[in-house]
Amino acid sequence: MKSCFGRALCTSLALFFGGASACFAQTPQKIIDDYLHAEGGAKVLAKIQTLTIAGNLREDASETSGSYSLITKAPNKFYSEILIEPQHTISAYNGMSAWSQEAGGTPHTLTGTDAVEWAGTARYLNERLVDAKKDKLGAKFVGMENVAGRPAYHVEFLIAPGVSREVFFDTQTHLIVCEIIPPPTPRLLPASGRGDSQPHDKESLRTADEIDYFDYKPVNGILEPNRMELHRGGHIYQIAITRVEINAPVADSIFDFPRAEDRPLPDVAKLLLDVEKNQMAVENILKQYTCHLSEEEEKTDSSGQVTSRSVKEYDMFYIGEDEVRHMLAKDGKPLEGDEKKKEDERFSKDFDEKKKKQTELENDPKKQAKRDEEEQAQISDFLRAERFTNPRRELFRGQEVIVFDFGPNPDYKPKKLIESIVQKLSGVLWVDEQARDVARLEARFNDNVKIGGGILASLSKGSSLVLEQTLVNNEVWLPSYSEVHAAARVVFFKVKQNEIDRYSDYKKFSSEVRLGGSTPVEEKPKQ
Fold first, then answer.
1. Which of 95, 193, 274, 402 is the most exposed place for a label (fewest CB within 10 A)?
2. What are the backbone angles phi and psi of residue 358, rounded to the nearest 5°?
3. pTM of structure
């Protein structure tokens, strides 16, 4: 059967003349509402907590056979498996981390764009478009197209940053007849051009997947396809559905990273306490370093349209716990003339003020002790409000690390605002077992965060952050990469902001404090 992805995007003459009025009358929400009604009703679909689909699979070219399964569990878990020797592909998301396993390989935790894709896919599969508007699932009506000889509405859904689905709804039955799953697009801007700027995500190189759906049959009052055709990696798989179960018991362990019976793992609580102690030491050593920072920023409005882009280069210094940035270039052009003079004056003033503040703090043991207590409390808040599970050993950037998932601790009742915010986070933590330091952290908000009851500010569900550290001078783990994707509302303004920071060229420095003009001085190697 000809792929719907390869069909011409233009509408046939018959469709154009016969269905033009229907085309222009449609909105994404109207198409979704008609689909929900055809499927069995939004209220019935909203009651689905688990869905298990199993079937027989046959590859067209080789005529080899295998099996297919898809399991979902609300609100955001899924497990997909294709077994056709020698291929055995598993993809899963357990509400905190995404992982996959290919034929003959070991399972591995996904990072970056791939992890975002599976997190978005899990929400999409479980929500079934029931609350598309409420869940801020971006929907755009693309047009009318011909799918398998029948007219269909083409709607594009943005299910996560850089992750979309092209969905085709039959204009008569209103059911989904085809879905195209493009590979995720790289997020943010390209690297700034510096030789030391390296991508931190292995962007997917795969082509788009396509799933065609046929022969819908009722299951517990809900229409489900009885046959599917999957186009993936140049192969075409025919899938005959043999079993569909709705709201049958499904164990959470199905979605978890497979446990390996090899070397025993360290005690997670002890490991986290060691990490906490090391992080405090890192903050003290960090004061001795300067580095180069490349900051890439992209802002979009509430509709997803890009409103501004920028790339800035800085020399960055640490004064106590504070950063001081000295801008060198903007959008690839070094600062010159009055712009450079103004920035140099701003930097010198900022550096002096923060140095003076730090000196006063160091000369007042009580204030320093109070600040240290506050910083330690923030880490303790994170440890109390989160539950850490599913520890495993993996390789990350060539180093052996301990990886574990974290999510809200249901047994802990938040007492402070920061605890309430932290308790809505879930994600993955990579820890160097030997150094007892964090190599990478990925976290995302599973729910909306409101400050001042939502009057002052709110952070939307799905906002995410990534942090990485690297070993410098065989002495200390320091920040190397950070990435933030946030959809927020501050007072009356909605904004989406994406930012990537890359840290490089760490060097030790000392500073001479002179009010009115400090000069950071790089330390020379000892003879």
1. 193
2. -65, -40
3. 0.71
